[in-house]
Amino acid sequence: MTVVALGVHIVDVLARPVESIPAGQDTHVLEQIRVTAAGAAAGTAVDLAALGVEVASVGAVGDDELGDLLVMIMGRRGVDVSGIVRKPGEQTAASILPIRPDGGRPSFHVPGANLGLSAADVARERVLGARVVHLGGMDVTWGLHDPAFFALLEEARAAGVIVTMDLLSNMPDLVRGARGFLPYVDYLLPNEEQALMMSGAGDAAGAARELLAEGPSAVLVTLGAEGSLVADASGITRVPALDVPVVDTTGCGDAYCAGFVAGLVDGRDVAGAARLGTALAARVAGGLGSDAGLDGARSIRDER
Question: What InterPro entries does the record point to (predicted)?
Fold first, then answer.
């Protein structure tokens, strides 16, 4: 398998545009409601499949109807879902996202089975057989904060597997806890808030430099409308965002990660892979949900 996306799997239910929560039993008629596969592993996997990258997803869902739905959606999108384990008696992680007219996205969230994902659920041969392993949401998959999983990542990197990592939450204790993964990661892709939390630095550039010293070959900090910042041994490069009308920012970070990983698979340098991530994130921002705007996405891999 070319890429293994390992970590958080969530069902998102999105509605737009939502200006307020109706009082009492009132109803607001909306333009659109969608259900998508989301989360820092599942959302990235779906986007990679849309780019034409062979991808398998590894994670945990419940043995409930939401789990059935998530596995079905991912399979229909072209993701190998054989590495997703079903946890008896647990709920599949889910979010309800009322999207504001400006694209903002408050959320109601149940962490569900993601909290139960453990090193024992991850097949060693699947990780060692990948070209890239993308770790999605290690800040909330506490069961993977395990010496056995770190040893597997170390073995994979020694065998030439590239390891990338994104985060999920904006909770300081969780984000800082994921710092223990940095010696086992080649490329770290947090957003600005997460980078500041993880590092304790006062700005994105300082955060990237500090996190780079922990082991990754490069740190890429996404900055929303300001694009992204790429820090590696040669210094810091700024990659501008594309100017597009924003409908919903859900999944833009996952899309950036997917484009970046696809760029690595295609042999692009770090900045070139970041530009592909930027282009895919811009597509996703133009529609509702983490898989919006992906029709015809394979064509952007040919653009340099």
Answer: PfkB_dom, Ribo/fructo_kinase, Ribokinase-like
The residue type of 290 is: S
Task: Dig out the tokens for 51 from the structure.
Answer: 């780019």
Contact assessment for residue 173 and residue 44, using Cβ atoms and an 8 Å cutoff: no
| Percent of the chain whose predicted confidence (pLDDT) is above 70 | 99
The CATH number covering residue 181 comes to: 3.40.1190.20
Asked if 273 and 259 count as a contact pair (C-beta separation under 8 A), the reply is: yes
Number of domains into which the chain is organized: 1
Residue 304: per-residue pLDDT:
59
The string of DSSP letters for 232-289 reads: ETTEEEEEPPP----S--TTHHHHHHHHHHHHHHTT--HHHHHHHHHHHHHHHHTSSS
Count, residues in the chain: 304
What does pTM read for this prediction?
0.94
Element (H, E) at 220: strand 218-222
Instruction: Summarize the confidence of residues 31-57 as an average pLDDT.
Output: 95
Predicted confidence at residue 34, as pLDDT, reads 93
